Amino acid sequence: MPIPSPVIARGGKPLFGAPLGILMLEAAFPRIPGDMGHAGTWPFPVLYRVVRGASPARVVLDGAAGLLDPFLAAAAALVADGAEAITTNCGFLALFQKEIAAHVGVPVATSALMLVAMVAPMLPPGQRVGVITVHAASLTPAHLAGAGVPADTPIIGTEGGREFTRVLIHAEKTDLDIAAAAADILDAGRRLVAAHPEIGAIVLECTNMPPYAHALRETLGLPVFDIYTLITWLMGGIRPRNFGAPADRATCLGADARWRD
Questions:
Q1: 208-245 residue pLDDT tens
Q2: What mean pLDDT is predicted for residues 6-14?
């Protein structure tokens, strides 16, 4: 009877089984299911680290001034703890994409804006991607360049709305009227496609917008992509689905002649 090969468990880090590390802003607004700050959003375990002092206003309105080093340190700490990939909970951190990726040496996806370049080639000729953001006035060419987004991409923000931006960015209160927030995003989507009828897909910059993606898709009739789309795709590469050991060629040929040369 053959002796089974030994199974060796490899160590080297304090935490296992949570391959995604999420850099969180320091905020007090509610995290509803679908928000990346709600752990139940993810179909896999995650590690969180709050970057102290990184308020939404400071990151979005002030261009994350003075925050690069704290984000680098927090990302490195997540990797040291066991994260195999890093993301952030603000699309405006596309500003730090190259620096964080260079610092930690694992895959990094700072922003859903990275999806624009991925989605655009999928669209029919003459169509392009539009972006909905939490604050269009603050989304600069530097943010777009950091995520590889063309400078002429149609963009609209929710800052003129009734609820979403004033709660998430201006921190006017710590509760959220979900229906009013949804209305802000749907209104922005309608205005965006009315102004740019060539839009064939939407990318949601803000990581707090995935809870509203389904309603936006139903309203506009267009594909909607967001940080959940990006990160579940990323984790599909970090932890590919295991279909079991591939059958050998002879077995495949015996089971189905269509596999023959």
A1: 999 999 999 999 999 999 999 999 999 999 999 888 87
A2: 83
**Residue ranges making up the domain that contains 160:** 20-238
Q: Is residue 146 domain-resident?
A: yes
64-123 confidence digits (pLDDT tens): 999 999 999 999 999 999 999 999 999 999 999 999 999 999 999 999 999 999 999 999
What is the CATH number for 141? 3.40.50.12500
15 half-sphere exposure, CB direction, 13 A CA radius: 16
Task: Please indicate, yes or no, if residue 108 is contained in any of the structural domains.
Answer: yes
CA quadruple 117, 123, 124, 129: dihedral positive or negative?
negative
Taking the C-alpha atoms of residue 165 and residue 180, their distance in angstroms, rounded to an integer, is: 11
Question: Which helix (H) or strand (E) segment is 68 a member of?
Answer: helix 68-81
Q: Which pTM was predicted?
A: 0.90
Give the distance from CA 190 to its chain's centroid.
Answer: 23
In a domain, 258, yes or no: no
What's the domain count of the chain? 1
- As a three-state string, the secondary structure of 154-194 is CEEECCCCCCHHHHHCCCCCCCCCHHHHHHHHHHHHHHHHH
- Reduced to 3 states, what is the DSSP secondary structure of residue 139? coil
- Residue 243: inside a domain: no
248 in helix, strand or coil?
coil
Q: In this structure, which long-range contacts are made by residues 192-197, counting pairs with CB atoms below 8 Å and at least 24 apart in sequence?
A: 192/130, 192/132, 192/154, 192/156, 193/130, 193/220, 193/222, 195/154, 195/156, 196/128, 196/130, 196/154
